[in-house]
Amino acid sequence: IYFLLLFVFRTYAIRRIRDAFRENKNVADPAKIEELLNKAKANLEVIHRQVTIGQMYSTEKLVIESPGNT
């Protein structure tokens, strides 16, 4: 389950990054670019925190998930 959550978080983050770049590819105002970069850095910090929290509270496999119990 943990790896599935990592995959979901990763694909969501990649999709949001691509969408943001596509939405703002024609921005030429330096102030707006700086604002967008700061927003992207803040989002990256959120992703790092989520990964850290996910690693801290990872769960052990359930009995039915263990090999040999199928």
TrEMBL record:
This is Complex 1 LYR protein domain-containing protein. Pfam families: Complex1_LYR. It comes from the Eukaryota. InterPro entries: Complex1_LYR_dom, Complex1_LYR_LYRM4, ISC_assembly_LYR. Residues 9-46 form the Complex 1 LYR protein domain. Coiled coil: none annotated. It comes from Zosterops lateralis melanops. One of its GO terms (cellular component) is mitochondrion. GO terms for biological process: iron-sulfur cluster assembly. Belongs to the complex I LYR family.
